[in-house]
Structure formats: C-alpha cells, structure tokens
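REVIEWER CHECKLIST
Item 1: Sequence provided? yes
Item 2: Single chain? yes
Item 3: Sequence as submitted:
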Amino acid sequence: MTKTLTQSQLLDAAQLLRDGKLVAFPTETVYGLGADATNDRAVAAIFEAKNRPSFNPLIVHLPDVAAAEAFVTFSDEARTLADAFWPGPMSLVLPLLGDAGISDLVTAGLDTVAIRVPANPLAQALLREVGLPIAAPSANPSGKISPTTAAHVLDGLSGRIAAVVDGGQCGVGLESSIFGGDPITLLRPGGISREAAEGALGRALAQGGGLAKPNAPGQLASHYAPDAGIRLNVEAKQDVAHLGFGTGTADLNLSPTGNLTEAAANLFSMLRNMDALTQAAGADHFTVAPIPQHGLGLAINDRLTRAAAPR
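Item 4: Structure as written out by the authors:
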C-alpha cells in the first residue's frame, strides 16, 4: 500500500528515501517521484514504477547551490542562471564530477546530469532532512499527465511506491525549464520563461536537445498525454469538449482573463478533467484554444504539443 504522509511526517518520508524506497513529494512545479540518486536499485525502481524508458535521464534535486557543487561543475553562465533563479522552477544540465557517485541510471550514461534546487518549502525541508541527492521525475506513469496534487499521484502510482507527501496543489503547475551546454541553450521550456533567462544572460538563447537520445528530461515527442486525443489551436467550441483560454465559450478555461501564469498552474489538472469529460461523452478527442507563444505560453504550448502527438 502507498502511504499518504502529512507535512508533519517528513521524518518518516526522509527515512523511507534513505532506505531506498520511492516517495512522491510536492515541488512548486509538479509532484516528483523521489529516490536516492546514488542508489542504483532505488533509481531502477523509479523506471519500473513509471514504466519510463531507461534512455530518458532524470533530474537530481538538491537544497542549494553549495550542495550541487559536490556533484557538478558550473560554467560562468550556469552560475549566472543559478544565482538568478534558484531556488525555483529551473534545472541546469551540467558536467558531472568524476567522483560524484550519481547512479548511471540517473544520467542515462551521459557525462552530464540535470540539477534543480526547488523553492517549495516542503521539498526544501525534505531534501535537507534526507541529506542525499534525490532523483525525482514527475510522479506519474511515463508519458501521462503530470501530477499537481497528491490525489493525482495516487491515481497513477498507488501501490507502486512507498508513500506520497501531501503538500496540496503545486503553485507553478508546469515542470522546470531546463538549460544546459556551454554556451547555455534552452533544452526544455518550463516555469522560467525564455525571456527571463535571456534577460539574466544578456543574450538570445538557442534551443537544443534531441528526441532520439534525450540530453534532458521532457524531450520525447509524445508526453504528458491524456487518454483522449487532442486538437490544438481551435478558436471556439464545436461539437466536442473544449478547453478555452481568454474569452469565449468553453467547458473549462485555463484562464478566462488570458493570464499565462494562471493557465500554466491549471494546465495539468484541466487536462485530466477534460479527459474525463471526453470519456463521459463517448468522444475520442477534445479541443484546446490557441495559447500565445511568449512567456510561459512557450512552455504551455510545448506540453500541449507533446500531449497531442501521435502515441
């Protein structure tokens, strides 16, 4: 059975992680499925629980930059981004130190590793209590909609993991932005906008990464997918359920005021609800309104495109 732990039971959650068990916990982005990143068997259990492809690397979560320096080397640009956005919804893919002790399963055999310092107070407290690097992809079956509540975690992983720490609704609602390379490129859009990162670096950012052998999480063509199909960029409700943005008639609306921050926070929960509406209606797909391609809209469109991709 999967235990649901409260905020007052962080000591129990930390001990489970030290014992090599899987524990889901909240971050400001989505719930992560945590395991000791130095324990091969614990990391392998992540892939088994999620049915995740082993060539898809994981993000390692740490409480601060000082902790990260024990595992990776920072370039000047990476340091600039870390100073600007950590703790927060950003991951950096950095060169792995030779004696870091991170499992090869975490890095998918690469000589780099993705590192994140989450801002969520519960995540921070748990990481400090555990005292270990914690590998934590999103706490959902691979390719499915990411979880933003403890209930979402249990919907997909109940019975497959030891526990979930219930910290309520995630505030950002989209996975972290991922940056890496030297010079730095954008590997996955997310909770930190491209424009904000470009402002910190003082230059434009290219986009990198590949589908055949991902060098960061979240690069697979089909990802974040509901059971129902999705048609994107549909201006108005037609004969199937419609997920809106801004004004107009819709069954659900990511943000009636057209606020991209609100839309990002609502995205995964509303995709789940739209999936349920579609199945209840006996339809095979639902539609989604156009989302602007700037700020957090870049990350929202990235997730929607992958959710709508052929499976």
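Item 5: Key structural point noted by reviewer: The chain has a mean pLDDT of 92.
Item 6: Recommendation: ____
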